[in-house]
Amino acid sequence: MSDEMEEIISEFITEAEESLEKIEPLFVELERKGEDKDMLDDIFRSMHTIKGAAGFLNFQGIVDVAHSSENLMKKLRDGDIALSKQLMDAILKSIDMLRLLLAHIKNKDGIEENVTPLVRELENVLNNALHDDSSSGSTDEFSVKTESSVENKTTVFEETAPFIDSHTEQRAEEHLQSTSQEGSAVDASGMIQDDPEEIQSFSKVSEQEIEELAKSVDVKDNRNSENLQPTKDHGEKLKEKSSQNLRVDVERIDKVMDLAGEVVLVRNRLLNISNYFDQIYSSDPKSETLMETVSFLDRVTSDMQLAVMKIRMQPIKKVLAKFPRLVRDMSAGVHKNVDLHISGEGTEVDKTVIENIGDPLTHILRNSIDHGIEPSEERIAKGKPERGKIEINIFQKGNQIVIEISDDGKGIDLEKLKAKAIEKGLISKEDAAKMANEAVTELIFMPGFSTKEVATELSGRGVGMDVVKTKISQLNGYVEITTEKNVGTTFRICIPLTLAIIQALMVEVSGIKYAIPLSPIEETLKISENDIDNVSGQNVIIIRNKVCPLFELHTILETGSSHSEPTDYKYIIVISLGDKRFCIAVDKLVGQEEVVIKNLKGVDTNSSYVLGATITGDGKVVFILDVTGMSRQLIGTAIA
Amino acid sequence: MNLDFKMKVLVVDDFSTMRRIVKNLLKQIGFESIDEAEDGAQALTKLKACDYGLIVSDWNMPNMDGLSMLKKIREDDELKDIPILMVTVESEKEKVITARQAGVNNYIVKPFTGEVLKEKIDNIFEKITA
Description:
heterodimer; A: alpha+beta; Helix Hairpins; 4 domains; 6-stranded mixed β-sheet; 5-stranded mixed β-sheet; flat; B: Rossmann fold; globular
């Protein structure tokens, strides 16, 4: 098989799996909400698309299953049949079957699933539904029933089907219905299978022939009910898998998460109030009881928060599963030998992380294979093992998830990187000369940057490494790169454990309170005006012999002048995001608080440096600042 | 009939595997410049920005489906003459009539080979030049 073909197949598998993953929750929704045209459309379209692509790739089993469920969905969407549990089960079963078929293709295990029983079942369900529903009387019903049941002979039949004149078709249907009491079309299919010749002559059927046909249908009745049996096997396989699990709509979990967040807010307020009372009525024994009760609530709330968070957590394995194959294919595509080692795949991360981490990881892997790992000859010449090695290591560190992707390739050539950035007009020669090594590696995340002269087939997908940065920032995380010539490169991604509740430092500027996420804060300092230096127009301070750019929060946010006196002390927050480090000056440090992030509607979070809002212990709404966005903007304008 | 392989072709499909397959087949035929769009809306933006000689479009797409896109194109003075080849499946034959009425130049049934695709495209341009 050609590499191109392999790639198309692997892309198909990923895309088909994703699209199945997307429609599955819709069924839960459908069951809850009842029929919804848009949702039915979505499901229909997915089945339809999978079928279309599978046809090109000659995956007949997938075509057959997708075709039958597509038929069901079409009838459902057009209102010809009504949604029932039986119908839902059948479609879900077909989704499972499609997954299984995809898995076989992915694993190249050569296992052939017999899809006939399932296809039969789907038709049977459709027929039952059509019979139940008195409104069903469309003329194309007959052709749909039979068309989908002919299995391998579909092509022969489909050619003739549309040309059966509607009159004959209608009569045929009437006869079939009157002769056989139940599931006549399924019966007819049994017969058609026995004699493919009949299919071809079908377009010419006379009334008499139909009558004969209908009679023979009754005789086959018994055999067909046997044929329907084997579906049980498949059903049992699925049952084992779901024994101890409960499928819950994500929305419900999010609702609980939201409520837990509210409880955290109430607890914060209670803590505030009880502290106040404790100071005023410290002699009152009731005050102590209040403190006790509140601290108990405090503990329970924290536990609850953790428990709810855990519901949303899933092992990251889910995302990593596709990587061994991906690395294999990608490295084969560029004629390199690369082994992938994964550790810590059991680490649990938030669902949102699972959903969004796949792309950035794929990009980093691509980058490592394309640019990091050397071809075998070069490796041997350097005295390295012939096969390149990429390691993915995932672990939890404090309240962060760390994902490290390291290769043992040639490392990033910083000079070449600089030269390229200058050539592309991303930085000036003067900038390049001043740049620290950490800042140079950052360049690869700039939009439109690629160090290879010719983009390879793999990376030629119109997106670059800047996607990595963007995606990770959206998860409130950051990426850092360490690289050493001929030893290799490590990408380290750090993401907060939970995305909904974070620890924050409350600060005040121009009389307004803001929350800054605690995780990127390295330290807070109190400095005097004399500690501030100015380097070519940029204020800097020196922290333990390292120059660090300093920005005033009130200037960044354009909130007007700072309330502090010019000669006064300044409170400085040192922010460290990966290898970027900068300081923000504020008027006051208020304290640390656990805040619940509430998303803001109608606020452009990209340009306003606002991540969201929260309600503080004293019941006020406070903006949570987006330091990642700030760093991008600030460091972008002043390369230190 | 000699096709102009220099013309830009726009492949419209929401499924990236399909775009890739169609793109590969077009390359096989000899087309050199092939662009992609994920749905009708994206296609329209691209069509406005650049000159295309041919559109090969899927029918079932989110946001804007093939038919709505086709109608929009035929209503647009700038775009109305661009030939459109519609990609469909067997069970959608009834749509072909609707599409014909709306001004599609030809249709092709999935799955197809490069030869069939070329035939259909040849056919479109033969009719146009005739």
